[in-house]
Design brief:
Alpha-Beta Plaits, globular, 7 helices, eight-stranded mixed β-sheet, alpha/beta
Length: about 250
């Protein structure tokens, strides 16, 4: 059986560790989650990281008082063993110059939210009616197109996010794998959205285990139904159950 210290575990946050909320700040974290992740990290010899579109600081707030290795903003920023690397808002003047226009384009649309993350920007329309949702999507697409090849539009569940072109969760996992304790280990990645498919591709290419959360089409090899199932699995692993990702349900 594979030893825990032969594995590296990468976890998406929204829709994977926690249920999707109507707005980003309404997410609720199971009180048992941070401590369970700390126990699991210890079993894995430290090789546990959160790979998310959220900024590192936001993940810290949600999982306080625990602190984990994190790839934030789809890999724009990364923290390993307490050391943060990557870009900041100041590194993206072209994007910053377009924010005001994007805000103006969605002003007046009902229930459309702009989430300015500094080095990326997301437009959410989960609560919007269809016409306003379509207008919000068109606005973020137009802004992304105007920025050119240095940025790309990443569409997810009722959200469009403009990110640096080279920022993907796949790149983030490759970067983690270059450093201890992740180097040389078999990767496991759990995610729930279109933004996670690039990471599934990287994990699959390396012989790891990719796990899609939910019922959507995917290139992942395994599947769990919802975040509650993810938490049950992680809690069992944290408390000493065998870590056997090959036994998870096929996608």
């Amino acid at each position: 059986m594979t030893e825990p210290t032969d594995l590296a575990l990468y976890l998406d946050f929204d829709g994977t560790l926690v249920e999707i909320a109507p707005t980003p700040d309404q997410v609720r974290v199971d009180p048992a989650l941070p401590a369970a992740l700390e126990r699991l990290r210890e079993r894995l010899g430290g090789a546990l990281a959160i790979v998310t579109g959220r900024p590192i600081g936001v993940i810290d707030d949600f999982l306080s008082p625990a602190r984990f290795d994190v790839a934030g903003l789809h890999g724009v920023e990364r923290r390993v063993d307490g050391v943060v690397s990557g870009g900041t808002a100041d590194d993206h003047p072209a994007l910053r110059a377009r924010i005001a226009g994007l805000v103006a384009a969605v002003t007046g649309l009902d229930a459309v939210l702009i989430e300015d993350k500094g080095a990326s920007v997301a437009v959410h329309w989960r609560l919007a009616k269809s016409a306003d949702a379509a207008a919000a999507e068109e606005a973020v697409k137009a802004t992304a197109a105007a920025l050119g090849s240095a940025y790309r539009l990443q569409l997810g569940k009722a959200v469009g996010e403009i990110v640096p072109a080279l920022a993907t969760k796949g790149h983030a996992i490759r970067a983690f794998a270059e450093h201890a304790p992740y180097a040389g280990r078999r990767a496991i990645f759990l995610g729930d959205d279109l933004t996670d498919e690039k990471a599934f591709a990287v994990v699959n290419e390396g012989g790891g285990i990719s796990v899609r959360i939910g019922a959507a089409d995917t290139i992942a090899t395994r599947r769990l139904d919802h975040p509650e199932a993810v938490r049950r699995l992680l809690y069992s692993w944290a408390d000493g159950a065998p870590i056997d990702p090959d036994a998870l349900p096929q996608a």
